[in-house]
Write a structure and sequence with these properties.
This protein folds into two domains: about 1-160 and about 195-225 and about 260-275, 3-Layer(aba) Sandwich (Rossmann fold); about 165-195 and about 225-245, no CATH class. It has eight helices and 15 strands. It has helices at about 10-20, 55, 80-95, 130-150, 170-180, 200-210, 230-240, 265-275, and strands at about 1-5, 25-30, 40-45, 65, 100-105, 115-120, 150-155, 160, 185, 195, 195-200, 215-220, 225-230, 245, 260-265. The mean pLDDT is about 95.
Length: about 280
């Protein structure tokens, strides 16, 4: 199976490409830069939105795994809205040219303020520019795939726990703070409960979903259970032996973050069962 991975040099891309290669997939990896991409992949540096015939350029892949996205952790960035038609145009070109399956990285922020378990049928009412643009892309690509009878997979991500400096999550920021020799870390009250997956497990699940086509549609890439943010961060600091203490209450909670939200992992468990 030949899988084109966009955004392959990014925080998620580098780990997912490695996992696909470990699973003996044929991977074409593309991004602006390639310093973090596993060199076993076929690497094509590109400005994705300016490739005229991407299906031909990337060697007629069987699957498009679209991870490319900028400012993912800056939820209010106008780039989410400005880039939306460019993402759709690229994916549309791939579908029209003949790619048989499209898998796109989504986000639980498409759902907006919601308390409880998110399933694939949970209504979406996004509360940020990031969530609005992801949700719009999901609906556009789903329509296009239905029109062209292309298999559609929307990989809805939740919260990822990684212990590297690159990335903009709270966990990456803690690593950066520790490496600077700081001993306190400004924090919220940490009372919100979220669905967390360790980075390597997240990459494995994304690869597993991308390598099969029996399970399609929206697929939650999640643990299936909530955990209090403060508990997960404290455990992260302890597991990594960081000499850091949390400065609780330094920041307010974001008004659009739910008090408790997690994913229904039923379809993901079906994928894993069928492997």
């Amino acid at each position: 199976m030949r899988i084109l991975v966009t955004g392959a040099n990014g925080y998620l891309g580098k780990g997912i490409v490695k996992q696909l290669l470990d699973d003996r997939m044929e991977v074409v990896a593309t991004d602006f830069n390639d310093d973090k991409i596993d060199k076993r992949a076929e690497i094509i540096k590109s400005d994705l939105f300016n490739v005229e015939n991407p299906y031909e350029c990337f060697g007629k892949p069987d699957v498009l795994l679209h991870l490319a996205w900028r400012d993912g952790f800056v939820h209010g960035s106008i780039n989410h809205i400005n880039d939306l038609p460019k993402h759709y145009e690229f994916i549309e070109k791939m579908i029209d040219a003949g790619v048989s399956r499209v898998a796109v990285m989504g986000s639980m922020h498409e759902v907006g303020f919601f308390e409880g378990c998110i399933s694939e049928s949970t209504p979406c009412n996004p509360q940020s520019l990031y969530g609005i643009s992801k949700n719009a892309l999901r609906r556009l690509v789903e329509l296009k795939c239905k029109e062209k009878k292309c298999v559609f997979q929307w990989l809805r991500g939740f919260y990822i726990v990684g212990n590297t400096e690159d990335g903009s999550s709270i966990f990456s920021k803690i690593v950066q703070s520790s490496n600077r020799g700081e001993t306190t870390f400004p924090f919220t009250m940490g009372l919100n409960q979220f669905d967390f997956l360790d980075y390597d497990i997240f990459c494995k699940y994304v690869a597993d979903v991308s390598e099969q086509d029996d399970i399609d549609g929206i697929i939650n890439i999640c643990s299936g259970r909530p955990e209090k943010l403060a508990d997960r961060v404290e455990r992260f600091i302890k597991d990594n032996k960081f000499d850091l203490s949390l400065e609780y209450g330094a920041f307010p909670d974001r008004p659009y973050d739910s008090k408790a939200i997690w994913g229904d992992d039923f379809k993901l468990r079906m994928v894993e069962k069928n492997k």
